[in-house]
Amino acid sequence: MTLLSNRISTTKYALERLKKRQEISDKYNIPIEQILDLSLGDNLFIPPSLIQKILVKEVQSIDPRDSYPIDYFAFIDEISRFMGIQADSIYAGLTHNLLIQQLVLTATKPKDSIVLLNPDKEIYSKIAKNHSLTINALELADDFELDSERVLELAKETKSKIIVFSSPHYPTANQFKEEEILTIVKKTKIPVIIDESYVEFGKYSLVNQVQNYDNLTVVRSFSKAWGLGSVSCAFLVSNPDFINMLKESYFIEEIPPIHLLASNYILQNPYKFVELINNFILERKRVIEHLRMLSGLKVYKSDTNFLFIKFKNNVDELYEQLCSKGIIIQTFSDFDFFKDSDKSFLVTLGDIHINDRFIVAIMELLESIL
Q: 3-state SS of the chain: helix, strand, coil percent to 5?
């Protein structure tokens, strides 16, 4: 089985983002450190100093000559305690994308069919193409909700071997109805993989439902809500038999010690982070209320740390004008994969200062454009 290199893909995206910031800096004569990239759902509300203090403290607490200051199995036990689920239902890895890739490769063979949603994270289709799978993509309803019966029909018609999607969903920011997802899980025997990378911003998690179904797997990450980013890791919760299949196909992943230590610290000391997440959710509500008062924008409900917004016109001019103010948003003009993609954009929210900078900028632009 061929694995996409997580490090190569991560480096590629990082370099592309740096290149874009440099281009905007040169074009509009803005210092690169003043450019605000709000395009990819990064955590921009947890203070960097908080994570830095954790890293310094954890590194100083260990002997750097020790290869395993916290071993893999101790980390699994800590996740088990934190989540309230059995350790044999947990499998940890470096990133949620890599875990999803391992799940797909374990459950399928080349030429099999996979059901994906349209739109959804681009990485799923890349994984499928890399493994020579036949992709069957189902468009979401006009309100970006999930239609369980249509998913089941497509899976049956195409004899698909696996279903993969994110919820809370990227890029539309909404969390699908729990009953719709569970209907899919109940009525099919094939693996259903749910990417819950943004679930801490949502209404519920399916983690506690895994014990009730043999075919449900939930993937979680420390990179989004918890703010670890470059020192994050991830884990999945699944049927113990599926976990054993993963262990047979892959060596237990060697997660870098600093990633384990940082994630383990959060598991043992979540309270400050939970407070910050709750404060952010209140701040998200404030921003949505402000933006919904502006003419020319349709702001959708959000269960993530970003907003999905539809502009009255083609979004290209708005994108360029925001760039001139040192703000980068995510547009979908080049991707004809959902209705009005040329008018839609994504903006990541952060702390009050970041959010107010975006609000002021887009208010000024809408006054001049419309």
A: 50, 15, 35
